[in-house]
Amino acid sequence: MRELVTGLVDEVRELSTEVKNLRVKNAALREDNEALRQESARLKVDNQLLRDEIARLKNLPPRPPFRPSGMDKATDDKRDARQATSKKPRGPKLDLKRISREEVLHLDVPPGSRFKGYKSCHVRELIVTAELVHYRRECWILPNGKAVLAPLPQGVVGGYGPNLRRFCLMLHAQGQVTMARLTTLLNDVGVSVSKRQVVRLLTGGLDGFVAEDAAVLHAALSRPPTSPSTIPALGMRAKTATPPRSGPSILPSSAPPPQSPG
C-alpha cells in the first residue's frame, strides 16, 4: 500500500512538472501569435498604401472612402440581417421635438358654429430645391499694395456647393445611382450640370476623405480584438478596400520572374 501511494505521488509530481512546462510554452506561443498578428496588420496597411500610390501614379480615381451600399449580400453580416428582419418595437416618434413649421388649416363653417380647438396631425415631407447663389466677393487693396479677395465658403468646388456634393456622393455610393441617372436627376431638379462635372464632383478633391479612411482602416487593423465577434468585422472591413479599377495589380512581390536569354 505504501509503495502504491509513493508511486502515485511521483506520478503527480511528474504531471505537475509537465503542466508547468506546457504553460510556459503556451505563454510563449501566445506572444508569438500576438507579434505575428501585429505584423500582419502592418503588412495589410502597407499593401493598401502601395495600391493607393500605384493608383495615384496611374492617374486613376482614388479608392472610395466608404464601403458600397451592399448590393452583394454575401458581404453583409448575418447578425445585421437578422436584426433588420426582426420587427422593431412600436413607440413614440422622436422627431416630433424638431417641427420645422406650423400651419393652421381653416374651415368655412356656417354662422352659429362653436369653435372646439385644434386637432394635431404631423406630416413628414421632403423638400428638394435648387439654388443659384450669387456671392459678391469683396476686393481690397492693402496699404502695401497687395490685392486681397474674400474667400468662398468652405466646400465650394468648381461652382458647386458642399450640399450638392454630399447629395451626389450619397446617391452614388449608398444608393448606387449611375452617373447618367444622377446627371438626369440633377437636371430635372433644376441644377444645370453635365455628366463630366458629376464625375469630377465624385472623384476630385477626395484627399480628406481618403486620409480619414486610411486612418480608420489603420486603427481598425491595429486594434487587438476584444471579442470573437470583432474578428469577422475587421476581416470584412479589410476586404472592402477597393483595388484600382483598371490595369493589372502591381505589387513589389508580384514582379514576373526573369526570363533566360535566348
Structural class: mainly alpha
Can you summarize the main beta sheet?
Answer: 2 strands, antiparallel
- From the alpha carbons, calculate the radius of gyration and give it in angstroms: 32 Å
Spell out the helices and strands N to C: HHEEHHHHH
> Which term fits the overall shape?
flat
Strand fraction = under 5%
List segments where confidence is low: pLDDT < 50 over at least 5 consecutive residues: 227-258
Please name the defining characteristics of this protein.
2% strand, 262 residues, mainly alpha, two-stranded antiparallel sheet, 47% helix, flat, 7 helices
Task: Give an account of the 3D structure.
The protein is an all-alpha fold and 262 residues long. It is 47% helix and 2% strand. It contains 7 helices and 2 strands. It has a two-stranded antiparallel sheet. Helix 1 packs antiparallel against helix 6. The longest helix has 56 residues, at 2-57. The chain is flat. The protein starts with a helix and ends in a 23-residue tail after the last helix.
Task: Reconstruct the topology from this structure.
Elements lengths: L1 H56 L20 H8 L53 E3 L5 E3 L12 H12 L5 H11 L5 H9 L3 H16 L7 H10 L23
Antiparallel strand pairs: 1-2
In short:
This protein is an all-alpha fold. The protein has 7 helices and 2 strands, in the order H-H-E-E-H-H-H-H-H. Strands 1-2 form a two-stranded antiparallel ribbon.
